[in-house]
Amino acid sequence: VLRATLQADRPQSGIQLILVALSDRTEQVALDRMRSDFIVNASHELRTPLASLIGFIETLQGPAADDAPARIRFLAIMAGQAARMRRLIDNLLSLSRIQMHEHERPSGRVAPGELLLRIADEHEPQLVAAGVVLTIEIDDDLPQLVADADQLAQVLQNLLDNALKYAGRPGRQGQVMLAAHAARVGLDPSSNGPSPNGVVLVVEDDGLGIAPHHVPRLTERFYRVETAGPPKSGSGLGLAIVKHIVGRHGGRLTIEGRPGQGARFSVWLPAAPRPER
Ligand code: ADP
């Protein structure tokens, strides 16, 4: 508005400037709102385990001071709550680091098949604990990706952690599938021609899937779906992290809820140009 007033001697451009100033303001209000929602949500998520820790400390200092079996049990619960707080803080820091560098394109080279196998190996103890059968499909001769290896590993870790959490249905052994296929994605909007070569990484489970109305909101920070049965651990930040990393790599995340069949997450990433001969 101030800028518009300064231009008052040029009435036509003045009107344009008022509109620009108003839309700037609307954007600013939306940003402020997002920031304060974020702080409220983050504080709430941290307060819950903290309240439980304080409760147990008070019990151990008072009524349970001389109760050895209770002390062992309470300390185990407290360790779990402290670990939950640490996970949440690690995820918050990771998200803010990724957002800070969001506009810098990654420059490393990553072989997607090798990365997939490494992440599967690292998850072996969790696979065994969850009693899940893992299938892996990797195309021959996949191109390399221009990527930040640590961030891409984090994408696969977060998706695989979720798949292991939600795989299987009552009375059936869970199944998870990991795949890396060569793929093109739609048309390249900038050239209207075929899109560049790429690789699609797929993480699929055979759990209950996700109802369609939740799917568009899953990558929002702290968005979690209440499910029947025992609550699953998690911070609600895993998919927000995935979305930001994929965005930074110029890729695309597709979520198929497939209720009753199990969710499928596909990450398409552009291939590095082949070296000239
Ligand atoms: P969390 O730390 O809660 O897992 P995410 O951002 O990774 O956070 O996931 C957000 C929500 O998406 C989860 O709470 C869960 O409700 C849903 N979700 C994610 N992956 C799956 C899956 N493979 N099957 C069913 N629901 C899923």
UniProtKB/TrEMBL annotation:
A Gene Ontology BP annotation from the UniProt entry: osmosensory signaling via phosphorelay pathway
Give the EC class as a word: transferase
Keyword terms, alphabetized: ATP-binding, Kinase, Nucleotide-binding, Phosphoprotein, Transferase, Two-component regulatory system
Domain called Histidine kinase: residue spans: 41-273
Q: Which reaction does it catalyse?
A: ATP + protein L-histidine = ADP + protein N-phospho-L-histidine
Task: List its EC numbers.
Answer: 2.7.13.3
Instruction: Write down what this protein is called.
Output: histidine kinase
